[in-house]
Design a protein that fits this description.
Blueprint lengths: L12 H6 L2 H7 L2 H18 L1 H4 L41 H37 L1 H15 L3 H15 L5 H32 L3 H8 L4 H9 L4 H24 L11 H9 L8 H27 L6
Amino acid sequence: MSDLPIPVKPKSRFRLALESDLFYTFRRSPVAMVSAAVVVVLVLSAIFAPLIAPTNPFNPASLNLMNGFTPPMTPNAFTGDSFLMGTDDQGRDVFSTILYGMRISLFVGVAAVFFAMVLGITLGLISGYVGGWTETIIMRTADVQLTFPSILVAMLIFGIAKGVTPVEYRDQMAIWVLILAIGLSDWVQFARVVRGATLVEKNKEYVQAARLIGRTPGAIMLRHILPNVLSPVLVIATISLALAIIAEATLSFLGVGAPPTQPSLGTLIRIGQGFLFSGEWWILLFPAITLLALALSVNLLGDWLRDALNPRLR
């Protein structure tokens, strides 16, 4: 018999992911595991809200004003209906409103962070690679924007965008205007990080080799530099998601965010705040707890990801 070596079957990508250092640090962090579980549960609950929610709270045909202000787990005095988290002033099931409202909050947060990330990465790559007056204009604009609180910038952009939108389309475009406002207020941190990383990467040998073989600047930035600057960007995106969700809730709470026909968690908190001192505490408490759990869990996941991807902490 020959002593030929037995061929080893290559490991699947799933197996390699399970054996990676990132997954090892994840298993060693109880905070990260609990936070991930909370995020997964809340996100899936929002995605499958039509299947989980007892009723569609924003369908007028399903509302019964006689169920208004029903306390949690208590039969209504008039109809006898009982609700897990009670009802609001219009008889809407609070549990159902949270599930549907969380869909709006998550959609706005994810879309705003994606828009800010694309804009920030693009401007950061251009300013770091091109340099000169292009870099000066982009980064000075970023410095000026950093002097103002992001929530004020978002309110200003929201007001301007809503003002130029025709009146008959304002409610339909409110969510997209909200995404634009939050995204334009959060692109700066992506641009600054990407610019710094690009300044380091563009002087390395592989970029110089790409220039020698005639690659265009756009191809060098996208195919060579971009993959090497994404690690810090992913960390910033995770943390920014929690901030974007809070920013959306803040704007909606102030009445300049999601419209009443598409209420988010911030809108539900604003509605509940008006009934807090009259004894209907559940209308405010449950949406506020949901928002807190969602933002805190995403933020803790971002902190863990930042530490896990930092080679100095390994």
